[in-house]
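subagent[fold] <- orchestrator: predict structure for attached chain, return tokens only, no commentary.
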Amino acid sequence: MARYKKLKYEDLIVKLDFVPDFKTTEEIANYYDLIGQERAVQSIETGLKLDKSFLQHIC
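subagent[fold] -> orchestrator:
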């Protein structure tokens, strides 16, 4: 049978250095741009520009 290491509370804490220092999300500025790869963003923008009648034909 497998043996598991018993973890302490301190073993479960993850420290992230790249997270901004804030107490609540109200302190963070709003971000309105899309986050992601440029090609994915272009694909989403293209899909949003398509005529709805075109989508009915391909679905």
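orchestrator: received. Logging for downstream: The radius of gyration is 23 Å. Residues 25 and 46 are 32 Å apart (CA to CA).
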